[in-house]
Design a protein that fits this description.
globular; two-stranded parallel sheet; 4 strands; mainly alpha; single chain; 222 residues
Length: 222
């Protein structure tokens, strides 16, 4: 593993799996795709669409590590009081499988073997040269941003600070914000709210004044 630094950017898993498959196929052209399985373990995959994209772009299997850890946190907090770890994970995986099968069926594909690596997607809002470099073979009829706009979000030096927020604190903040606003928000908003409070504390300790702008990250409907 290469740690991120000023000269090394971190790539999101979808781009990384495409890059790995492309380089492997170029260096071992005599091998077929069936002999080159890629098992992805990532904290990025949480929803059906995330897993569907990873498999559709070449991942043989996906382990949504952060999602499993989140289920454990919800069990500890009582949000899933009637489930243990095995039951919660089993239900989550079944839901993902059903969702992926629905995506495949809408595309007219009946087997995972045919779907894996087929890249039957269209990019929206990405420049064609960027798509051609990282997702060769994918159409991008509605173009938009390219690498100069995409990369900064993955360069560590462009981030002033990062805050590690425990799951329990995120859920507590989520419930607090929901009560204050009178509407449902999700765990991501709770995490963001804790980050805002931490930033306010840093500003106060440093004697700084100013405004902090934040957003609602999700509606809590997932």
């Amino acid at each position: 593993m290469i740690p991120a630094g000023p000269s090394v950017i971190t790539l999101e898993m979808l781009r990384l799996i495409r890059r790995a498959l492309t380089e492997t196929h170029e260096s071992q052209e005599h091998l077929s795709h069936d002999l080159l399985p890629f098992v992805v373990e990532t904290g990025e995959a949480r929803e059906v669409h995330h897993c569907a994209l990873l498999i559709g772009y070449g991942a043989s299997a996906v382990t949504p590590r952060l999602a499993f850890e989140t289920l454990d946190g919800m069990i500890r907090q009582g949000a899933l009081s009637k489930s243990d770890h095995a039951t919660a994970v089993d239900n989550y995986v079944k839901a993902l499988n059903k969702g992926i099968l629905k995506v495949m069926s809408k595309m007219g594909i009946s087997t995972v073997q045919s779907y894996c690596g087929a890249q039957i997607f269209e990019a929206i809002g990405l420049r064609q040269d960027f798509v051609d470099k990282y997702f060769a073979g994918t159409a991008s009829r509605v173009e938009g941003i390219g690498r100069p706009r995409v990369e900064p979000s993955f360069i560590p030096t462009s981030v002033d600070a990062m805050v590690k927020v425990p799951d329990a604190l995120s859920l507590a903040a989520m419930r607090h914000v929901s009560r204050q606003l009178g509407r449902r928000v999700g765990g991501s908003t709770g995490t963001n709210f804790i980050g805002v409070l931490q930033a306010a504390q840093w500003m106060r300790e440093a004697g700084h004044q100013g405004s902090i702008v934040s957003i609602l990250c999700d509606s809590g409907e997932r």
